[in-house]
Design a protein that fits this description.
Beta Polymerase, domain 2; Hydrophobic Seed Protein; Hypothetical protein af1432; 7-stranded mixed sheet; globular
């Protein structure tokens, strides 16, 4: 990689030039340079400088600066309608809480600043006058696909244990492997993750699970990191599934199912969203507690979906995810063994229960899950799910009713027709919806009222 491959946005270049014209060194630094080296688009451009925060504010003026992180030497500069963080070169003091430096000390050179960074791929800087500044050979590690700690990995993880999860996340995003000494240090310091807030662990886990290489990153090193932060998965490791539908243990199956979200496309990619990927991670965590073995030596996992849903909720609430996120993922886990019958009645019933988006997610979840089974299990799923998806689309194209809000008549219509308000009205509407779902009548006012009249006639004759 040559320096010519790094292209600074005009606003970034203008900020660097302004600082340099005022006698200070300035560089673009960190992840933006890593992404440029890798040929990836850089979304966040961070700027480092030898100028002190008050000097940055004076140079750009009060109207163009925001004192967003003065305790860490950061001033946000407004330029061309965008915001850029400009941080004074610094070195960190002790990390007594295992997460944040107790103090920071400003330094004069970018090399001193880069020494405090987490990984070599993030310890690069650039400006046009000096070119690529890479004292830890981060470019080489980018080319080789390696995540390596800057300097002593034990020191880096002792300073900030969140870096353990960041290493896994970078591996998941970039498809890199963690270098062996760095990986060994990560495992030695797993207990320091107790210093990290559950919210931060949850945020890192979500970014990892939704990344392109999530399964490979989580499975590396025998999955020690994910098994530590999610002990419920630890029991899955080595839990055999001796039956005709499985060829991997529960943990291996889980990782393969998660990998399938990225690599298989029977159903649209956009259905494999963050809810689906988190559900794939947790969909079988109840299997070890549900396992039985019959007299022939075959393993069974009766009711594992409901047990998994209970455990999934415990995990997600412990990691402080939102109620809406938890409810959506838990519902997917609980329903991940639902049967898809390729009939319009089944499609309408499932739409009534799950809604359009959730049913699409469930189809994708089931696809990823079943592709991690034996070929026999996949063939069984495919023979039902693919035609079901076609029928589902027909139902959606017909704009048929699958919830009360879709019915062609409502409570006001029933009152106008002489029905009395009250609990009975809700029962009538639900019976009408069921009749439409099961194709006993059409979803139009005339047919719906005719169906009610038939039901009342039959009831009077009984």
């Amino acid at each position: 990689m040559t320096s010519e491959k790094i292209k600074l946005p005009p606003a970034v270049q203008a900020i660097l030039e302004t600082l340099q014209e005022n006698g200070h060194e300035a560089v673009a630094v960190g992840g933006c340079i890593r992404d440029q080296v890798l040929g990836r688009p850089a979304h966040d451009w961070d700027i480092g400088t030898s100028a002190l925060p008050e000097e940055v504010a004076q140079i750009f003026g009060a109207n163009n600066t925001i004192p967003t992180g003065l305790q860490h030497g950061t001033v946000t500069v407004k330029k061309d309608g965008e915001l850029f963080e400009v941080t004074t070169y610094r070195c960190d003091g002790d990390y007594s809480d295992g997460r944040h430096p107790d103090s920071v000390q400003y330094v004069r050179t970018i090399e001193e600043d880069l020494a405090r960074r987490d990984f070599t791929i993030n310890a690069m800087a650039y400006n046009e006058s000096r070119g690529l500044i890479d004292p830890y050979d981060g470019r080489h590690d980018c080319e080789k696909g390696i995540i390596r700690a800057v300097g002593d990995p034990d020191a880096r993880f002792t300073e900030d244990a969140l870096r353990i999860l960041r290493a896994v996340r970078f591996a998941a995003v970039l498809g890199f492997a963690v270098e062996s000494t760095t990986k060994a240090a990560m495992q030695r310091h797993l207990d320091k993750l107790q210093n990290i807030s559950r919210e931060r662990i949850g945020a890192e886990l979500y970014k990892t699970v939704t990344a392109p290489h999530a399964a490979e990153a989580l499975q590396a090193g025998q999955g020690t990191v994910i098994r530590y932060i999610c002990p419920e998965l630890d029991a899955c490791y080595g839990c055999a599934q001796n039956n005709r539908y499985h060829y991997l243990d529960v943990f291996g199956h889980t990782m393969q199912a998660l990998a399938n979200a990225e690599h298989y496309h029977r159903f649209p990619d956009e259905w494999a969203d963050g809810y689906v990927r988190m559900a794939l991670l947790l969909h079988d965590i109840g299997k070890p507690d549900s396992k039985t073995t019959d007299e022939n030596g075959y393993d069974h996992f009766y009711s594992h979906a409901s047990v998994s849903a209970q455990k999934a909720e415990q995990v997600l609430r412990r990691l402080r995810y939102s109620n809406a996120f938890v409810d959506t993922v838990v519902e997917l886990v609980a329903a991940h063994d639902v049967e898809f019958v390729p009939t319009k009645a089944c499609a309408r019933r499932l739409l009534n229960k799950f809604g359009v988006d959730q049913l699409h997610r469930l189809l994708k979840l089931r696809e990823c899950d079943n592709r991690a089974h034996t070929l026999e299990a996949w063939a069984r799923f495919e023979s039902n799910a693919v035609p079901f998806a076609a029928v589902l689309q027909q139902v959606l194209d017909e704009e048929s009713a699958f919830s009360l809000k879709d019915l062609a008549i409502n409570g006001k219509d029933l009152i106008a027709a002489g029905y009395k308000p009250g609990p009975q009205m809700g029962k009538l509407l639900n019976s009408l919806l069921d009749a439409v779902i099961t194709e006993q009548c059409k979803n139009d006012p005339v047919d719906l009222f005719a169906y009610l009249n038939r039901c009342e006639t039959e009831e009077n004759m009984a």
